[in-house]
Design a protein that fits this description.
Chain lengths: 442, 303, 311
């Protein structure tokens, strides 16, 4: 009896307290602040642009967005973050920038914000964030230096992150009685079978253009086929049998792909699929919005989605963007509030409804979201296989990635021998790693 | 101040603004670049923080197959572009050197390509070369011909074509001006002697135009090393390194690979190459001018 | 005029028509496509049968339109701002280059002074420097060295007046881009104007001097009016470079000082190639050069010939 009374009183006090905080608007102190944020030109962030007015309406914090193509964005950030006082209050960064920024001490550790009771929203429910994304994009300092782990901590939150799924043309598959590929073998066979069945149509649309695009397309196949760039001791193993298999898969896909495939960047690859020039598309989840947009797409309603096919294992990529607060920002606390709002359950659902990529499990399961985007369920399933370690996120990666991309492009266009090409990449990668001191302890 | 004092300082006062600006914004940066090329320098450092590494950047580049390939692409691009443009431009000038109605309108239309921003030229051609929606492949398709993978397998050729489109008019107009300023008497004399049009061109017109043609060619050659935006927009240097000319590689090294020191060293190699070319061509011009003067004198004597 | 034109072979006219189509065709194609929807461009409903729309231009110019076009959710392009930046940068740098270049050219032609040959040779040499070579040093200098301390007198004043953060650097300002454009164009302008100034008869200047005019008066009142065609040619060429340049501007500008070429390249973002809008922005960027070409082709040709024949 006494006990119930006590807990009842406690309940009332808590309720009163909560009412108190609700009255004292946590955003009040920052009303009228203008945040300058740096976002990429990317479908997810286009959706974000649509929900930002809602944030301003709720909080009174203005947001001015500098939207740049993502490689440009990175250049800009390199410069801005190095200044004593930077212009940006909040930045979106590409996954592979994480290493550089954290290593150079340019991103705020988020612990102090989540510890601050005036800033941290108790209803945030961090456990609902997709853990694969958080470990891949937000954490640093743990296992292998760039992952989560006992020594890791949080520097950013996933936002506009993506995983890989296979899009296919339901009508074409039905017409020829084809099965949706479950494994790499099936997918590769189909990729070359389709041009024979449907003259003029390519099998699978993939990026392949020199540089980042080719490297990305290769990495997409590397993990599912059991390969890796480095082994446990940072020795390059990209030239082993699995690596060669991944490069062969890429070459086969491009050879059986639509016309001009060797020079496709992401935009062209997607464009070919939107235009009905290919029957399959294996890349990020981010494209779903455009495929359903009749202004851009000729294949509205004809596309089905399936999991990234299995090689020796199931491993879909994780990538995309995270958001973090630069160490040299002016309005860090208000920036945190924006960050928290964007990734909150409410914000995540809003952005999903506007066509963005949600970063919460609950949003993937949300009935309303699924009613508007039926593919969301498949995407949620794909996330279970999302591999946070599909490429090394270390400061030397930019250089190795560029070399990998150029070399692979030579394989695709100039007929360079695959083994020879990857051996070259491995040798140069080892030299780069050696110079950066990765073999100091060996 | 006395009048003579003022007079002595006048030229310096006229020169000063130009000299100061060029010193601050051209010569100092060039020196700064040479200084930076000896350093291991990334964009988030100031030059003072960057480590001095001596000639390492130059040596790395010299042994870098990618740099060599890029150098090869640059030289091939420059060679083909200048050759084709000279041949076509001069040829058209010889062909169109007649009194026809609307010549000035024609010339106006021909200079249009040169005036438009390289970025826009790049995007127009990127569209026209597009494998499926582009103008050329649609045209080929319409005639039942096989499509061509313009920016894929034939990227360098396609880029060269775009440059020829943009800059042949330059050579055409200069050659036309040169043709029209030739001494009429010499041509008249040749005609009376019964020289065929071909003979007139080879023995009289071309030799007399030579000084102008050489200067024009030199200008185009130097400009060919400056081309960047058109290629950046059309192919970004790909596929592989097949269209990655040095200017583009410098910009990528500086921004994408974040190696300012290496980019500076590469810039220096490019400068040295250009310097060599300029000096050679200048020597050649002097020699040619002397020769042309002799020919001119001889021809006029005959007349 | 009573000039009798020669009659030409029909093949000759065919050739001319072909040449005209080739040189103007791509521009026309861009013009037409800028009035098409993306779906029309991609699906290839060939030729001229399509419903023209100004939607692409609305998307491009959304930040300066007085109404909100209904087909766009938010205004991402901000073309108007970039256009104004381009105008400011191109106009100011053209005027500065002309004034400064003119004076230098005059000094080089009319006076014998110590260092004249050095200056002349240097001018000639820096003409061959490609912009890409300037990228690294200009990036480094403009961002790190050409700065005013924000606690300093002038730097503090600028920060107080205009806001912003950090030290006051040339990078990210209009002045920074203008400075490098002026420097880049000076050698060319000096060179081209020299050939015009040489033709001004010395006797005119001496007559003015006898009448008691100082050297600056002689220059501004006597020489300048006489070389107007040269100035026009030089102005067009300088404007063209400043208006069209991409590389250095992209290294130096920030979000408030972006010029149109940067915007166009940025807009060819890999996620979404919107051909219609790109063509519309390209068309807008090409308008000033097209106007020059149509109305000042004579000056352009004079300038080209003067620059090359003397070069």
């Amino acid at each position: 009896m006494k006990l119930t009374l006590k807990s009842g009183a406690l309940g009332i006090t808590t309720a009163a307290l909560m009412a108190g905080t609700a009255l004292a608007n946590p955003y009040a102190d920052y009303e009228g602040t203008t945040l300058i944020v740096n976002f990429p030109a990317h479908p997810h962030y286009d959706a974000v642009m649509q929900i930002l007015p809602e944030f301003t309406a709720q909080t009174g914090i203005e947001v001015e967005v500098d939207q740049l193509p993502y490689l440009k964005m990175r250049e800009r950030q390199t410069l801005e973050l190095a200044q004593d006082e930077g212009e940006y209050d909040l930045i979106a960064y590409v996954v592979f920038s994480k290493a550089d920024y954290v290593y150079a001490d340019q991103l705020e550790n988020l612990a102090k914000y989540f510890m601050n009771p005036k800033l941290a929203d108790p209803g945030y429910d961090a456990a609902d964030l997709i853990d694969g994304y958080v470990y891949n994009i937000g954490f640093a300092g743990g296992d292998r230096g760039y992952l989560s782990g006992a020594t890791g901590s949080l520097f950013g939150l996933p936002y506009g992150s993506e995983t890989s799924v296979l899009g296919y043309r339901k009508d074409i598959f039905e017409k020829h009685g084809l099965d949706v590929p479950e494994t790499y073998e099936e997918m590769l066979a189909l990729a070359c079978q389709i041009p024979e069945l449907e003259p003029g149509m390519g099998g699978l649309s993939s990026r392949a253009a020199s540089g980042h695009h080719a490297a990305h397309a290769f990495l997409l196949h590397l993990n599912p086929l059991g390969g890796a760039i480095f082994d446990e001791n940072w020795e390059p193993v990209v030239n082993n049998a699995e690596g060669v298999a991944a490069a062969e898969a890429l070459k086969q896909i491009v050879d059986c792909g639509p016309e001009g495939a060797v020079n496709f960047g992401f935009g062209e690859a997607l464009g070919a699929f939107l235009n009905g020039d290919t029957a399959m598309f294996l890349d990020t989840t981010i494209v779903a919005g455009q495929i359903d947009d009749p202004d851009k797409s000729q294949v509205v309603g004809q596309v089905g989605w399936a999991l990234h096919p299995m090689g020796t294992e199931r491993a879909s990529q994780t990538g995309g963007f995270g958001i973090g607060i630069p160490a040299n920002a002016e309005n860090k606390e208000a920036a945190f509030l924006l960050m928290q709002w964007l990734t909150s359950k409410e914000g995540d659902k809003l952005v999903a409804m506007a066509g963005g990529n949600p970063s919460r499990f609950s949003t993937h399961a949300d009935a309303e979201v699924n009613a508007k985007f039926p593919h969301m369920a498949t995407f949620g399933e794909a996330l279970q296989y999302a591999d946070p370690d599909w490429r090394p996120i270390i400061p030397t990666w930019g250089k190795i990635n560029a070399d990998l991309g150029t070399t692979l492009s030579k394989v695709l266009t100039e007929g360079l021998d695959i083994q020879e090409a990857l051996d070259g990449v491995a040798t140069r990668a080892r030299a780069t790693m050696d110079e950066a001191g990765y073999y100091t302890w060996n | 101040m006395s009048r003579s004092m003022a007079n002595r300082f006048t030229p310096y006062m006229f020169m000063a603004p130009a000299a100061v600006i060029m010193a601050i914004a051209l010569l100092y940066p060039l020196g700064y670049m040479v200084w930076g090329s000896f350093r291991d320098w990334n964009p988030s450092q100031t030059i003072g923080e960057a480590e001095f590494v001596g000639l390492k950047n130059y040596i790395t580049l010299w042994n870098d197959p990618n740099f060599r390939e890029s150098l090869g692409v640059t030289l091939r691009f420059a060679f083909f572009v200048v050759t084709f443009e000279m041949v076509i431009g001069v040829g058209l000038a010889l062909l169109l050197d007649r009194d026809i109605r609307g010549m000035s309108v024609l010339r106006t239309m021909f200079i249009l390509p040169m005036m438009i921003a390289p970025v826009v030229v790049g995007l127009m051609w990127r569209y026209m070369y597009h494998p499926t929606v582009g103008t050329f492949n649609r045209f080929l398709d319409g005639w039942g011909l096989p499509k061509i993978d313009w920016l894929g397998q034939h990227a360098l050729g396609s880029v060269i074509i775009a440059d020829i489109w943009q800059w042949t008019p330059f050579i055409f107009i200069l050659s036309l001006a040169a043709l029209q300023s030739l001494p009429r008497s010499a041509l008249e004399a040749a005609r009376i002697d019964g020289a065929t049009p071909w003979q007139q061109i080879i023995h009289i017109k071309l030799p007399l135009m030579m000084p102008v043609l050489i200067v024009t060619g030199l200008l185009r050659l130097i400009d060919a090393f400056k081309v960047l935006e058109v290629i950046l927009v059309m192919t970004e240097g790909g596929p592989g390194l097949s269209t990655e000319i040095l200017a583009l590689r410098i910009s990528r090294t500086a921004t994408e690979f974040r190696e300012l020191g290496v980019a500076a060293a590469m810039s220096n190699y490019l400068l040295m190459l250009l310097l060599l070319l300029t000096v050679t061509m200048f020597g050649f011009t002097r020699w040619q001018e002397a020769r042309a003067a002799r020919i001119r004198a001889a021809v006029e004597e005959d007349a | 005029m009573a000039t009798r034109y020669e009659r030409q072979h029909p093949a000759f006219y065919a050739l001319i028509t072909l040449l005209v189509v080739m040189s103007v065709g791509p521009v026309l194609l861009m013009f037409i496509n800028s009035f098409k929807l993306d779906v029309d461009i991609i699906s290839g409903a060939t030729g001229l049968i399509f419903l023209p729309t100004i939607q692409n231009y609305e998307t491009a110019l959304c930040d300066v339109l007085w109404y909100e076009p209904e087909h766009i959710d938010f205004c991402s392009l901000k073309f108007g701002g970039a256009f104004i930046n381009s105008l400011i940068i191109a106009l100011i740098s053209t005027v500065l280059t002309l004034v400064i270049g003119c004076m230098a050219a005059y000094a080089l032609v009319r006076f014998r002074f110590m260092g004249r040959d050095t200056v002349s040779l240097t001018t000639l040499m820096v003409r061959m420097v490609p912009p890409a070579v300037l990228l690294v040093p200009v990036f480094g200098l403009w961002n790190n060295e050409f700065c005013l301390d924000r606690d300093g007198l002038i730097g503090g004043l600028i920060r107080d007046t205009f806001g912003g953060r950090g030290d006051v650097c040339l990078a990210g300002t209009h002045s920074g881009i203008i400075l490098i454009y002026v420097a880049m164009n000076l050698p060319f302008v000096i060179w081209i104007l020299q050939s015009f100034i040489v033709q001004v008869p010395r006797s005119l200047e001496e007559a003015a001097r006898v009448d008691g005019a100082g050297p600056f008066q002689v220059f501004f009142l006597v020489v300048l009016p006489l070389i107007k065609p040269g100035l026009a040619a030089a102005a067009i060429f300088t404007f063209r470079i400043a208006w069209n340049e991409y590389l250095l501007a992209s290294a130096l500008s920030d979000r408030n000082t972006k010029t149109v070429p940067i915007l166009i390249v940025n807009n060819m973002s890999e996620f979404n190639v919107e051909w219609g809008v790109i063509m519309a922005t390209g068309m807008l960027l090409a308008i000033p050069p097209i106007i020059f070409t149509l109305f000042a082709s004579r000056q352009i040709i004079t300038g080209m010939t003067a620059g090359a024949v003397k070069g």
